[in-house]
Every structure is written in C-alpha cells, then in structure tokens.
Amino acid sequence: MAPYLVTVGAERCRERFLRVRRPMFHRLYLQGDAVVALPRPGTKTAGPVAFELSGGRELDLTTLAADAAPGAGERVRLEYLNAPVGRGPSELRLFGSASTSWRTLELPDAVSEVAEAPFGWYVGCRDGFLYALERAGELRWRWQTPGAARFHGTRPGEAYFRPCPYRLAANGRSALVGWLGSLWSVGPDGETEWGLRLHELSPPHVSEVRVRTVPPHSGQDAAAATLGVPAHASHEEIKRAFRRAVKGAHPDLHPGDASAAARFRRLHEAYEALSGQGGVRGNGARAGLIRFSFSGATVSFLDTVDRDWLVGGDTGTLFRLTSEGQLVARVKIGGGALFCLRDSSQRVVAFCSYPPAVNSEPNLWFVDAAAPVSLPDRYRWPDYLRGSYGGYLLSHRPRGRDLALIDEFGQLAVELRCPRAITSIAVAQGVLVLAAGALICLEVDGLSPLTRTRIWRPPFTRDGSQQPTHSGAHIAG
C-alpha cells in the first residue's frame, strides 16, 4: 500500500524523498537543513533519525548542532505532556537543540496554553494559576485567576468549570488571560493590572429561533387531521403534506370551486400551527419565533499586534484593545467562534470563524483583504487550519489521514491522503514534510517563499476608519 496519494493538485507536487522503516515514524521537527524523525512514544528499540532535507540522506545525529546550555537563549524550547483536567500532574519538558530534554518539571493540573515571556514562558494551568517560568525552568511567580480560590468542585467533570487562564497571550511585557467572558492583564511582576468583561465591548448579541407552536392538544390533533399527518409528524412530513393538499384547494387552480378559498385557508392555518411559521400578530410578534438577546460572549482566542491585544469572541466578533484595555476597533467577521491564523514567522495574517450550521457564509478574512472568503466545505473548521505558508493555508484534522493546502481565494489547491494517520507535519521553504507511519517529503509549488509582507488595512488597523465591504462588519473607532 502506497504511503500517500495526491488526490488534488498532483501537478504541483513532486516527491523529494520517502523513508519507510520499523518502528514507524511518529513525530518530526526541523533542525536547520535537516529533519529529525522520532518513533512512536515508548519505543525502546529505536531512537531519533536525521535526514538531509535536500535529498533525504541519513545523517549522524552527532553532526547536528550541539545541545544548547541549560537556560541559554532562544534555542531552549518548552513542550508538555498534558494530564486530563482535574487529574494531574502535567509534565513540562525543556529542550535544547537536540531531541533529549535536559529538565523536566510538573504542574498540578492540565496545561491550557503557553505564551512566550521575555524571561521564559507564561503557562496557564487548569488548577486556576498562571505560572511564570524562567528559561532555566525556575518558577518566578504564580498568579491566581479571580474566583478560582472560591471554587470547590467535588463531582466528576466539575473541574472543567474552575476559573483558570484558559486563553493566554503575551505582548512582550504583560500577559492577557481569558476565562469565559472575562479578561485580565497580568503585569511582569505577577500583579493584576486591569480586568473587564467581553460584553462591555459590544452590544448584546441577538439570535432568533423558530419553533413549532404548541396549541391545545385537541387543536393540534385537528390541525394534523386537516393535513392528514400524525400529530407529532416531522417538519418535512408536514411540508410535503401541505404541498400535496394545496394542489387540491388553491383558488387559482380551482377557479370554479367556491369552497376552495375556505379550504385553502384552513390548510394554511393548520400548516402554521404545526410548523411554527405564523404571521405577524397584533403586537408585532411572530408566532413560533423566539428572539434571544444575550451579552454573555466568551473569549475564543487571544493574540497581539504592535503591542495591542486581539480578542476573538464566540459570536464572530474581533476586538482590538490597547495594552491598557481600551477598545480601539471592533469588526464582525463571522457567525461563530473566532480564531486567528499565523504564518511561519508566527505573525497573525488572517481570522477564521466557525461557519453557521445551515448556510455557507464566508468565514475566512485576511488582514490585507477587502472582504472574507469561504473555505472548502470539508475544510471549513478553524481548528483544522494549521497556519499560512507561502500562498497556502494548511488544513489538517488532528490524527486525520487527509491534509489540504488551500489558496487565499478559498480554493482547494492540493489534497493529500494517507492510509495511516498523519501524526506530525513540518513546512520548510518549498517543502512539506509529514510523518504518517512513513516519513514523506514533498516539493510543492507555492510553498516558497514561506512568508509575505501583509499590510494591516481597515478594519484591522488600529486607527482604521473605513467600513469593510462585508455587509455584516462594524467598526468602533
């Protein structure tokens, strides 16, 4: 069985090298001009293997750069092995430039998010604390989320509702913490600088839900009998029955039948009673229509741009705040929870919202675009998008077997399918590398150069005053 199949855009792809061995490759990372591949965790008979990216020649690991000294510079990275929420501890591992960790730490519960700090890292933990760790692994301070000290969950699953740094970002000085609809700025000394609620930044969100009216039981039975359906028929059954019945009662189809108008009116009233699609009543309300107005928006992502904070909400609205928490811009992007996309240099380049359940509204907006575009239907979910690389967005469902490269117009440019789960992905200049049992390295047209300069334009600029072309957008300047 072939380790992969290019189902879309095969003319854009060329295999650079393919490596298959036992135990199978499970994880990989790039180190300079080489890729280091690791076997499945727990494998005792094999270790990491390095290959040249240029042609796939196997390298001696000792020829790669030596480990960074503990605590030395930007070459130190932090990874973590998460415990289930409420059943810690979680394990933090500090790495130098090689694959072997030189220090292991523990936190008492699951890790929610990690953000870079000038001195090391901010680490959010589900025990309610934000931990400030130095690059050498020492604890500098910890900050407790307001409300976490009063939380006393005893039943299974209640630990998920403990206030904690669930969303986290850093701007080079402070950390911004988000929990449900609350935001707090935590200074470099571990003290709270300010806090606010997300609903203070936006008018209430209004949703409408059409429901079936519930007349008295006898009335419902009579309406069902009029259409010839069971009293608890589905909406589709009611609609089909109404369409059939109307053909025998519509006045336009039976001009010589004096009783047709009365029969048609009874059919229409029965359909409205069963389907919840009544007309406007005297007080202006619609039968079967419930309108919800709520302001309890929650934080879906946090990030930064030019020391300002970017805050995404679960109603598809993006907020831009100063470092002091003042609102400077607001734009409606979509109808669901909002997330950001980064390029290979970790700059924010686009925003994507969860699509509404029943339509295909555009849900992807680049910071230099005039309006949003729609993603391909099977790759519309923001949590599948791994980032922006060259002219493509990379989309992959965790542990899935499919991988897609989507262009900036929302079109599917390349699609790759593997018989085994894709467990690790890396992108270099013009090259896509993935572990799916085998180690696969493909050259892809359009992946080079990885980065491009994007100009933040209204409505995403700090002082933007132009209205975006998307009809649902709004700016507060």
Task: Please characterize this protein's 3D structure.
The protein is mainly β and 477 residues long. It has 3 helices and 33 strands. It has helices spanning 217-227, 235-247, 260-275, and strands at residues 5-8, 13-19, 25-31, 34-39, 49-52, 58-59, 77-81, 90-95, 101-107, 111-117, 120-125, 129-134, 139-144, 167-170, 175-179, 182-186, 192-197, 205-210, 289-294, 299-305, 308-313, 317-321, 327-332, 338-342, 348-353, 364-366, 385-389, 392-395, 402-407, 412-417, 424-428, 431-436, 438-444. The protein has a 5-stranded antiparallel β-sheet with strand order 1-30-29-28-27, with no helix packed on it.
What is the total tally of β strands?
33
Annotated CATH homologous superfamily of the domain at 208-293? DnaJ domain
* Shape descriptor: globular
Remind me, CATH topology of the domain at 208-293? Helix Hairpins
Largest sheet: 5 strands, antiparallel
Arithmetic mean pLDDT:
82
Whole-angstrom Rg? 28 Å
The CATH class assignment of the domain at 208-293 is Mainly Alpha
Quickly give the CATH architecture of the domain at 208-293: Orthogonal Bundle
Structural class: mainly beta
- The amount of beta strand, in percent, is 35-45%
Q: Helical residue percent?
A: under 10%
> How many H/I helices?
3
Oligomer: single chain
Task: Point out poorly predicted stretches.
Answer: 66-74, 208-216, 278-289, 465-477
